[in-house]
Amino acid sequence: NIFIVAVNLLDFYKNHRLPISDQLILGFSVFSLLYGLNEGYILYTDLTRLYSYRYITIEKHFFMYVNSCTLWFSALLSLHFCLKIVNINHRFYIGLQRRFPTLFPWVIIASPIGYFFLGLYSVLWREQECLQNTTSQNVSAEESTRCSWYLFIFMITCVLCTFFCSVSALTIASSLFKHMKRIQENTEGSRSPNMDAHIRAIKMITTLLAANIQIFTSVLILVLLKTSLPWGTFLGILISICHIFSSYFLIKGTKKLYKALTEILGRWPRVS
């Protein structure tokens, strides 16, 4: 993730612009990196026992924020690739293809910032009120719902992101498989550069989808069931592994990133 962020920032500094796909990959990598740092800090505080109720509240909201943004960027990345690769003769789809580049900056900026301020409001004001209410014996259903509104928004966000990512990824995979079959028939079974590019794209999309589903499942288990150690640690590490594999296949599937990686590795002295 550090490599992806560094390459894209250097490219932006050099060219003063980033394509939409690179912006989405950069956003995905930034939030994956934040999740890894947060997970390391959680393990440190668990070992040293340096935590309080306020710390647990902030950590819970930050965990939900980072993972929802990661799912959001992976869904947008899958949708962007779908609009770029797959052609569907439908009015809504064609309109979305044309308007996505103009809508994109507002969507990518407004969603994470809006979700951040919702989380900040929940931590600073609502959690304190809810904590005072939980000390009383009778808590109404309305009060319980009012105190868990941020969790409901988080769940809806995760479900929608996973749904869009799944539909987009499956549509891309189906389209690429059909295209590969046509290429294979036209070239009489010989392997072409287009075939290799399609295979890399399918690997990247399927890995992104698998990671999205795994992160979604693990996050819901952790948040809804309030899983404690050791299962909480195991699921947290599993999410980190999903981030690592996603980043690896993003590098393999992106020409710019893969070229930068091969150039760096090529400069290392080889031990004979």
From TrEMBL:
Superkingdom of origin organism: Eukaryota
UniProt entry keywords in alphabetical sequence: G-protein coupled receptor, Membrane, Receptor, Sensory transduction, Taste, Transducer, Transmembrane, Transmembrane helix
Membrane topology: Multi-pass membrane protein
InterPro entries in the cross-refs: TAS2R
Cross-referenced SUPFAM superfamilies: Family A G protein-coupled receptor-like
GO cellular component: membrane
Coiled coil regions, renumbered to chain: none
Main location: membrane
Sequence intervals crossing the membrane: 24-44, 64-83, 103-124, 149-173, 201-225, 231-251
Subcellular location field: Membrane
GO molecular function: bitter taste receptor activity; G protein-coupled receptor activity
Family named by the database record: Belongs to the G-protein coupled receptor T2R family.
Name of this chain's protein: Taste receptor type 2
Species this protein is from: Engystomops pustulosus (Tungara frog)
